[in-house]
C-alpha cells in the first residue's frame, strides 16, 4: 500500500490540521528518550501532519479518510509515555486528542471522560464533588486518561486497588475502529476491555473512558528515613500488609537516589539513609507513626501536614514511579532505567543477588503494588548507562541468571516489552478493527509475523 498524504490532507483540510515541520516533529515525539536504545532508533522519526479532532464524528471522518488513502494513524495524548508508544514509525497522521478533553459525567461511583482529558483535571473535577480517581501516573498533571489506559499499566493507587489490569478499575472504553466505515464500539467487561487496554492504540482510538470514582480521602504524604534499603523493604511490607492503614502510594529508594536526585528532600535525610515515601489517609496517620516508631532503624522525617508555614515540597508521587527516572535524567542524562518484577517470597534473595552482581550500577527503587491482593514489589531501578551493549547484558543477567523478569522499556513493541503478550483473541480483534494494519503500525509483532512466539518461560505483567 502506498500512502497518498496529499489527497488525505486535501480531504481533511477543513479540520484542525498542522503540517508545519517543526510542530509536526514536536507532536511526533513522546518520552522515548528515557531509553538510550530507543533514542538512537527513533530520534529522526516524524509524522507528515497532525490532526486534532474535536468530536467523535471528526475522529470517524479522519479514520475513514486515512483508510481510503492508506495513511497510517498514530493516536497521541500528552506524549508522556516512555516506550515510544506514540512514535509514528511509518509517518502519516498523528491524531492529537487535545480538543477531546471534557469530563462528560460524574455519577455516584463512576466518571466518564473523553480520551484526551488530562488526569489532573479529572481528579480536580472529582474532588470538587467529594470524589477521587483510583489510579493515576506520576505525570497526572499532563497525561491524558486515554493515553494512560492505552499505554500504562499501573500507577499511584495500585497499593490499594491493584493495576489497570484489575477488571474493577476500568468499566468501559469507547473506541473507534479504522475501516472503510469506522464503527464506534463500547468495550465492556474484562475480555473486551483487554483488546484496547495497554495496546498502544493498535486496535482503535479510545475516545471515551468510564472508570470508578471513590469517596474523596484526605491524604497525607510522609517521608521516612531507614538505615538500609533492605530494611526499608521490610518496613514497606509491614506497612503494605497492615489493613488498618489506608494507603495511596508506597515507594522506596536506595540512599543514592534521594541524595543525588531529590534536591529539595536531600536535607531532610541522613546521607546514608534509604527513603520510604508513603501516602496515607489522615484517619490512619497515627497508626503509621506507631509502626515507624516501633521499627528499629526507621525515622519519620517529614509529615506534609506538619510542614512549617511557607515550606513547599513536591507531592511524593512526583518523586516516584517514572518521575524518579525523570528527576535523575535532569541531573545526569546518562541515567536510564529498567522495570522488573520481584516475587515476594524470594524478594530479599533476589535483591541481594542484584546488589552483589551490579553494586551501584543499579540503584534500586521499588513501587509496592497489589497483584491478586498480595503486596508485591515492582522494581524500577535506575541504571548507570555506559553502553547499549552493557544495558542488554544487564537485562540478560537479570532474567536468565538472577531470575528477575524484566519488562523491557527499551523495546518499542508490545510483545518485546514484556508487559503484554499477543494472543489470538486480541490479534483477531485487530483484524476486524484495523483490517489494513494502519493503526500505529510496527508496534505489534504478531500482526506482521503471525508465527512469532515469545521466549519460552517469559513472564508477562498482563497474563492474557
Structure, described:
The protein is of the alpha+beta class and 464 residues long. It is built from 16 helices and 20 strands. It has helices at residues 5-11, 21-27, 36-42, 56-68, 119-127, 145-151, 158-161, 190-193, 229-241, 256-261, 285-293, 323-331, 347-358, 388-402, 424-433, 445-448; strands spanning 17-18, 49-51, 73-76, 93-96, 103-106, 110-114, 131-133, 172-176, 184-188, 205-215, 219-226, 247-253, 274-281, 298-303, 335-337, 340-341, 362-363, 365-371, 374-379, 382-384. The longest helix is centred in the C-terminal third of the chain and has 15 residues, at 388-402.
Can you lay out the helices and strands and say which pair or pack?
Layout: H1 5-11, E1 17-18, H2 21-27, H3 36-42, E2 49-51, H4 56-68, E3 73-76, E4 93-96, E5 103-106, E6 110-114, H5 119-127, E7 131-133, H6 145-151, H7 158-161, E8 172-176, E9 184-188, H8 190-193, E10 205-215, E11 219-226, H9 229-241, E12 247-253, H10 256-261, E13 274-281, H11 285-293, E14 298-303, H12 323-331, E15 335-337, E16 340-341, H13 347-358, E17 362-363, E18 365-371, E19 374-379, E20 382-384, H14 388-402, H15 424-433, H16 445-448
The profile of the biggest β sheet is: 7 strands, antiparallel
- Radius of gyration (CA) equals 22 Å
Give unreliable regions as ranges: 460-464
Going by helix content, strand content and strand pairing, the class is alpha+beta
With strands numbered from the N-terminus, the spatial order across the biggest sheet is 14-11-13-12-18-19-16
- Cα(first) to Cα(last) distance is 32 Å
**Strand residue content:** 15-25%
Mean pLDDT: 94
The percent of residues in helical segments reads 25-40%
Structure summary, number of beta strands: 20
Shape: globular
The helix count comes to 16
Amino acid at each position: 500500500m502506498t500512502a497518498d498524504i496529499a489527497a488525505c490532507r486535501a480531504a481533511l483540510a477543513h479540520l484542525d490540521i498542522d503540517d508545519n515541520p517543526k510542530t509536526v516533529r514536536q507532536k511526533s515525539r513522546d518520552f522515548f528518550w528515557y531509553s538510550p536504545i530507543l533514542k538512537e532508533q527513533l530520534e529522526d522519526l516524524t509524522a507528515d501532519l497532525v490532526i486534532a479532532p474535536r468530536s467523535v464524528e471528526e475522529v470517524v471522518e479522519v479514520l475513514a479518510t486515512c483508510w481510503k488513502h492508506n495513511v497510517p494513524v498514530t493516536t497521541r495524548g500528552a506524549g508522556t509515555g516512555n516506550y515510544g508508544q506514540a512514535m509514528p514509525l511509518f509517518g502519516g497522521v498523528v491524531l492529537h486528542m487535545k480538543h477531546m478533553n471534557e469530563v462528560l459525567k460524574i455519577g455516584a461511583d463512576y466518571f466518564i471522560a473523553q480520551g484526551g482529558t488530562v488526569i489532573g483535571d479529572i481528579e480536580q473535577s472529582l474532588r470538587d464533588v467529594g470524589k477521587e480517581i483510583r489510579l493515576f501516573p506520576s505525570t497526572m498533571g499532563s497525561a491524558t486518561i486515554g493515553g494512560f489506559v492505552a499505554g500504562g499499566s499501573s500507577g499511584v493507587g495500585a497499593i490499594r486497588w491493584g493495576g489497570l489490569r484489575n477488571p474493577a478499575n476500568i468499566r468501559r472504553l469507547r473506541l473507534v475502529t479504522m475501516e472503510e466505515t469506522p464503527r464506534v464500539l463500547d468495550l465492556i467487561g474484562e475480555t473486551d476491555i483487554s483488546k484496547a487496554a495497554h495496546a498502544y492504540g493498535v486496535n482503535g482510538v479510545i475516545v471515551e473512558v468510564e472508570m470508578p470514582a471513590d469517596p474523596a480521602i484526605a491524604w497525607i504524604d510522609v517521608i521516612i528515613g531507614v538505615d538500609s534499603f533492605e530494611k526499608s523493604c521490610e518496613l514497606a511490607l509491614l506497612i503494605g500488609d497492615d489493613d488498618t492503614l489506608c494507603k495511596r502510594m508506597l515507594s522506596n529508594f536506595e540512599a543514592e537516589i534521594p541524595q543525588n536526585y531529590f534536591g529539595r528532600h536531600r536535607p531532610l535525610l541522613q546521607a546514608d539513609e534509604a527513603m520510604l515515601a508513603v501516602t496515607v489517609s489522615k484517619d490512619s496517620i497515627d497508626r503509621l507513626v506507631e509502626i515507624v516508631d516501633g521499627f528499629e532503624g526507621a525515622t519519620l522525617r517529614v509529615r506534609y501536614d506538619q510542614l512549617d508555614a511557607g515550606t513547599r515540597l513536591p507531592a511524593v508521587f512526583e518523586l516516584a514511579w517514572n518521575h524518579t527516572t525523570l528527576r535523575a535524567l535532569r541531573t545526569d542524562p546518562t541515567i536510564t532505567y529498567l522495570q522488573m518484577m520481584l516475587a515476594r517470597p524470594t524478594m530479599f534473595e533476589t535483591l541481594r543477588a542484584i546488589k552483589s552482581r551490579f553494586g551501584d550500577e543499579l540503584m534500586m527503587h521499588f513501587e509496592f503494588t497489589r497483584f491478586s491482593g498480595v503486596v508485591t514489589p515492582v522494581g524500577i531501578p535506575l541504571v548507570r548507562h555506559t553502553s547499549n551493549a552493557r544495558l542488554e547484558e544487564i537485562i540478560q543477567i537479570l532474567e536468565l541468571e538472577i531470575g528477575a523478569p524484566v519488562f523491557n522499556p527499551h523495546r518499542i513493541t508490545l510483545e518485546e516489552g514484556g508487559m503484554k503478550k499477543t494472543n489470538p483473541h486480541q490479534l483477531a480483534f485487530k483484524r476486524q478493527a484495523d483490517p489494513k494494519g494502519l493503526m500505529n503500525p510496527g508496534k505489534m509483532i504478531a500482526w506482521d509475523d503471525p508465527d512469532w512466539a515469545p521466549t519460552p518461560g517469559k513472564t508477562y505483567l498482563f497474563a492474557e
